[in-house]
Amino acid sequence: MEFGTEDDAFKFYNAYAFMMGFSVRKSRTHLFQDGKLRDRLYVCSAQGTREEDKRDDTVQNHRAETRFGCLAEMKINRTPDCKYRVSKFFPYHTHVTTTPSKSHLFRSHRKLNIANAAQADMADSSGIAPKEAFEFMSRQAGGRENLGFIPIDHKNYLRTKRTRKIKYGETGGVLEYLQKMQVNDPNFYSAIQVDEDDLITNIFWADARMMLDYDLFGDVVCFNTTFTKNKEGRPFAMFVGVNHHKQSIIFGAALLYDESAETFIWLFDTFSKAMSGKKPKSIFTDQDAAMAKALASQWPESCHRLCIWHIYQNAAKHLSHVFHKFTNFATDFTNCVYDYEDEEEFTNAWFKMLEKYNLNGNDWLRRLYDLKEKWALVYGRDTFCAEITTTQRSESLNSLVKRYVSYKYDLLRFFENFERLVDDRRYEEKRMDFRASQSTPTLSFPVKFLNHAASVYTPAIFKLFQIQLCRAHDCSFRCFNDGESETLSKYKVIPHGKKYHRTVIYDSKNNNVSCSCRKFEFAGYLCSHALKILCVKDIKSIPDQYILKRWTKDIKCVSTKIGSNLHEKRESRENVVRRYRELCRSYIQLATRAAESEEVYEIAKILIYCALSLPSGR
Predict the structure, then answer these.
(1) Cα distance between residue 65 and residue 596, in whole Å
(2) Pairing mode of beta strands 235-242, 248-255
(3) Is residue 493 classed exposed, middle or buried when 0-12, 13-18 and 19+ CB atoms within 10 A define those classes?
(4) Quick check: 266 and 202 in contact, CB under 8 A?
(5) pLDDT for 121
C-alpha cells in the first residue's frame, strides 16, 4: 500500500488498530541528509519493556505494566515519487487484544478535535460541570465509544486551558481579565490593592450596567461578607439593592484580603468613586464593628441600619434560656423592634420588658440598646429603606453564588463564573420588564384606584399596593379635628381586629395625606390607613406626590437630572467635572438601551451626530 503523506499512513494503521483491538505509537525514524523523512516505524503500544524505575525506594504504588514485548508493527519508506509505501508489516501480538467496543479507551484512539474542544469550552463557560458536559456530548455522538475521548481527557483539557490562562501568575491573570473587560466595556471600573510583595490584597469591580442600576436604584444598599469564595478563603462582598420589580440586583462586588476597618474604608471609598460620588440613603449590614467604623468614617450621611435577622440570631444565642423559659418573650421583643411609633413609647416598652423578665443586668441587651437607632423601626420610619429590614437580599445572592462558583476556584475562574451570575440576574429583570409591558395584573375588584395603580406600578409593587387597599376596606375611622385649619382633617384609623390606631392627617388643599405608621416614607407606597381616608374623600387615583418613580414601570425612561447651575459665568473645574460625570451617566443609559435594538441604535446615532454638530457653547 502507498500513502500520500506520513500522516495518512499513521491514520490508516491507527484505524486498523482500532478494529483489531490495540493501540499504536510512533517509534524509530530515519531522515535523509536534507532532513526529509526516509522511513518511519509504527508499533503496538505494548512493544518493548518498561525501563527500570529509579524511584523504587520512594514510590509506594507503581503504575500497572502495559509493555509486553509485542512484535506487531508497520514500517513505511519514502519512494522516489515522494509517496510512502509499506515496506514491512507484522500482524501478530504477544498479548491479548481487546474488542472494538473497548478500543476507544486506548491512548492512540483518544483525541479532542476542534469541534469537541469548542463544545467543552462552551459548556465550561456556561457553568456546566465536566461530568454533565461529557454525558451530553457522548449522547450527541451516539455513545461514549463514538465520542473519541474519555472523561479524563476532558478534565485534562480544561485543566490545561485554565493553567494557560494563569501562566503569568494570579496577579497577572486577574489584570489580564480586567483589561479584557475594559476593552469590551469602556466604562468598566476596577480597583486593586497590592501589598509590598506585589500580591493582590483587595479587588473591587463594577461594570457600566451596575453603575446605571445604582443611579436608578442606589438609594438602598445591602452589604455583607458572610461568604468566602476563592481557594484562599478571601471574604467575598457584594453591594446589593432592589429594583422596581423587588428583585435583588448587584451594584458592585469585591474580593477582600480581610475584614478589617482599613479594608472596609478602602472599599467604601472605592465604591463611592466608581458611582461618581453618589452614596446611598440607607445601608444595611450585620453587627460588624469594623464595618460600622468604616461607614461612620466614609459615609456619615447614609443611614446605617443593622440587619434584624442577625439581631434575632444573636438574641437566640445570648438569650436562649429566656426564650425557653418565657413563651411571651419573643412577642415582646418583636414588638420593641417593629411596633412602636413614638420614641418614648419604645423606651418605656423596652425597660418594661427588662423588668418583666428580670434582664436589667444583661450585658448583651445593654449593648444592643446602645445601638437602638440602628435597628428599632421607630428610629428608621422616616428614612426610605424600600421596606428592607435585613441583609437577606445579599445573603440570598450569596447562596445563589454557590451554584456558579466553588471555593476551590482560583481568582480568574471566580471572575468568569461570577459573570454568569450577573448575566442570569439581568435576564430575570428583562423577563419581568417584558411581563410588565405586555400584561396587566388581575384586579381583586374593578375600581379606579386599582386600575390607576396597575397602570403605573410594576406587577410586584401593584400586588403589595392591592393588599393595602383591600385592608383599607376593613379599617374603621373616626375624625377628631382640632380646628387648627379649615383644610386639615385628622383621623384615628383602626385596622380590623386590632386595638391600636394610626393617626392620619389629610389636607384637602393639595390632597396631601400622612400616617403615623410612616409606611410611605419607609416603603415608598401608601399604607391601608392613608388609603382608607383617601377613599372616604372620594379620591379615585393615587396623588402624584405619592407615586415613587423607582417603583414604576417607566423608571428606566427617566433621564438623569442635570444640575441647575447651567448659566454660571465663571466655570470652576468642579462644575466641569460634575457635568462630565452626569453626562456620562446619561450616555451610559442611552448606550445600554440603544444597543438592544437596531432601530433605536440608528436613532441614537443620528441624535449623537446632531449633538456633536452643534457649535461649542450652544
Answers:
(1) 60
(2) antiparallel
(3) buried
(4) yes
(5) 76
Amino acid at 546: Y
Report which DSSP code applies to 232: T
Q: Are 313 and 325 in contact (CB under 8 A)?
A: no
How far apart (Å, rounded) are the C-alpha atoms in residues 234 and 242? 26
Which residue would you say has higher pLDDT here, 103 or 371? Answer: 371
Could you tell me which residues come within 8 angstroms of residue 72 by beta carbon, excluding any fewer than 6 positions away? 22, 43, 44, 47, 90, 91, 92, 93
Between helix 343-356 and helix 329-338 the angle, nearest 10°, is 160
Length of the chain in terms of residues written = 618
Say how far apart CA 330 and CA 312 lie, in whole Å: 9
DSSP string, 363-421: HHHHHHHHTHHHH-GGGTTTS--TT--SSHHHHHHHHHHTTT--TT--HHHHHHHHHHH
All three cell numbers of 86: 509499506
pLDDT digits (tens, 9 = 90+) for 454-477: 999 999 999 999 999 999 999 999
Count CA atoms closer than 13 A to 167's CA, side-chain side.
Answer: 5
214 closest CA partner among 179, 253, 254: 253
pLDDT per residue as tens digits for the range 64-119: 778 888 999 999 999 988 899 999 999 999 888 888 888 888 888 888 878 888 88
Give the other-Cβ count within 10 Å of 382's Cβ. Answer: 10
> Buried b vs exposed e over 592-607: b needs ≥16 C-beta within 10 Å?
bebeeeeeeeeebeee
Contact 76, 3 (CB under 8 A): yes
Q: Give the span between the Cα atoms of 27 and 42, in whole angstroms.
A: 6
Amino acid (one-letter) located at 156: N
Sheet strands side by side (includes 282-285): 189-194, 200-206, 248-255, 235-242, 220-228, 282-285, 303-306
Name the percent of the chain lying above pLDDT 70: 84
Position of cell 427617566?
558
Distance CA(162)–CA(511), nearest Å, equals 63
> pLDDT tens-digit profile of 583-599?
776 777 778 778 878 88
> Are residues 221 and 282 in contact, defined by beta-carbon separation less than 8 angstroms?
yes
What CA–CA distance (Å, rounded) separates 457 from 325? Answer: 46
Average pLDDT, the chain: 83
